[in-house]
Amino acid sequence: MSNLVYPGDLRGLTWTRIKTAENSTGLQRSSSADETRIANYLNPIWHWILMYSVLYDRPGQLIPGYSVPDYRYLQGFFLARQGMFDDFLFLDPSDYSIGPAILTGGGPNPLAQLQVVNDGAGNYYSPIQRNFGGLFYEDVTDLATGITVFANEALQANPADYTILGPGLAIPGASFSGLYLKWTTAPATPVTAQFNFYFRVRFESDTQDFEQLQHDLFAIGGDGGVKGSGELKLMSARRNA
């Protein structure tokens, strides 16, 4: 397991990008076609397909903060992860933020609301989750920024009001695989929060094509790719201990 962040600021990342949610359902059908279905995953597995129309290998055209060209950094990042062995952090360019916790003009934001659960022994917890479309809570395993928390619109402080623990919480009747808040006392509700988050991912394959277009230009699919596999694939992954 590593906490290195995928180099999303490298040049050449192009459209189209594809993002797929994968669920797993156990299905048993009787002779009368009645079905029993069991959901195997609490959280979906996400898949991303990324393409790079150009990756420079020109020492004179470095991105500020990088000591090697785009191609060499991305190739080195893949090799250092040993393909799909090591997981890392990925900031989805269009899906990385929850909030604001308080709406403009006042009032808690229902799409930034956190659940409050208790273990029956006087301890209260709020799983750190994203409320996707107001329909589905998904556990968040890695924060990209600090978290700002409100209880019934009152700003809460860490560690006076809560501490951040996890990932992983199991209490009677419920379990969560992400980070969570442990409250010092029962919070006023609703609890809302704002934060940026990473997806924890790995490469989907142990192999990766980098297509050389000319002496100092490479591509992974995109407009310039011709012969290569045409895509770089990531998938969300549990921690690799």
Radius of gyration: 21 Å
Order of helices and strands: EEEEHEEEEEEEEEEEEEEEEEE
Q: Which consecutive residue ranges, at least 5 long each, have pLDDT under 50?
A: none
Biggest pleated-sheet summary? 12 strands, antiparallel
User: How many helices does DSSP assign?
Assistant: 1
Tally of strands? 22
Q: Strands, helices and their partners?
A:
Layout: E1 13-22, E2 25-29, E3 35-39, E4 45-56, H1 70-80, E5 88-90, E6 97-98, E7 113-114, E8 117-118, E9 124-127, E10 129-132, E11 136-139, E12 142-143, E13 148-151, E14 154-155, E15 162-165, E16 169-171, E17 174-176, E18 180-183, E19 191-203, E20 211-214, E21 217-220, E22 232-236
Antiparallel strand pairs: 1-4, 2-3, 4-21, 4-22, 5-19, 6-19, 7-19, 8-9, 9-18, 10-11, 12-19, 13-14, 13-19, 15-18, 16-17, 19-22, 20-21
Write up what this structure looks like.
This protein is 5% helix and 42% strand. The strands form 5 sheets. Strands 1, 4, 5, 6, 7, 12, 13, 14, 19, 20, 21 and 22 form a 12-stranded antiparallel β-sheet that branches. It has 2 domains: 13-93 and 200-236, no CATH class; 98-198, no CATH class. It has one helix at residues 70-80, and strands spanning 13-22, 25-29, 35-39, 45-56, 88-90, 97-98, 113-114, 117-118, 124-127, 129-132, 136-139, 142-143, 148-151, 154-155, 162-165, 169-171, 174-176, 180-183, 191-203, 211-214, 217-220, 232-236. With 241 residues, it is mainly beta. It is globular and about 65 Å long.
